[in-house]
């Protein structure tokens, strides 16, 4: 987590890969993700502007489900602030993502993958981030585990095999400070607030809502976080696959700091592009100055 001043917010192009074909064959998942990263970075062969920052969805290299996490888990052993040797990494996913970011020359939020910690063998749902040089610059372990039980609809218990992360994470690019979360983390405004109060102008959460919670909450939560923190907020989902064990909602989305949805996918494989304009961010904060109207004399500052 950076404690320095955030970089000046500059315009940039964001591309979300709503990845399809995520099946049991990890090598095939990685190969397909790589092709889509290169395609997204190049603006779909020139049809769209080239992307500066590309995002993959939650659990892009493995089927989504607690039984799969131990089988697909990879060790990463990233220590913030220390140089990371991608070539020596045991993670095939890290190697692919690093090479793809470097080849495409883009910042890359590499969705999330099941991760096994090298010291205690605990499993995490972990996002990794790469610079255009292919350096692994940040990770985020999903803090809030997706444990829900809606009778007759959906029961899911990530905590059967996963442990929740303990840190709040962001990274600096040459155009913005970007805060990270993963899926269920969006339901906890504190995480978004802390990253926003630490200077993030953009919050990105790989995610995979489902056919029960997606229609009601996916857009609402993103617009809520965008408005209450006055930031760009974006979630990137896998495409829906009704043959898979988990049916993702899709609808990868980008919301501006006024709460307007500026880009949205359907439920099939797609790449969604959005131009991120800092003026909207500055106008939102100038016009509705909640960032300077907080009453920490009345309630606690959770970001302190
Ligand atoms: N999959 C998740 O982590 C969260 C989700 O689907 C929801 O909150 O709903």
TrEMBL record:
Q: Where is the CN hydrolase domain?
A: 12-278
Q: Which GO terms describe its cellular component?
A: mitochondrion
Q: Which InterPro entries match?
A: C-N_Hydrolase (IPR003010), C-N_Hydrolase_sf (IPR036526), Nit1/2_C-N_Hydrolase (IPR045254), UPF0012_CS (IPR001110)
> A Pfam family matched by this chain, by name?
CN_hydrolase
> What keywords is this UniProt entry annotated with?
Hydrolase
Residue spans crossing the bilayer = none
| Family statement drawn from the similarity comment of this UniProt entry | Belongs to the carbon-nitrogen hydrolase superfamily. NIT1/NIT2 family.
Annotated protein name in UniProt: Carbon-nitrogen hydrolase
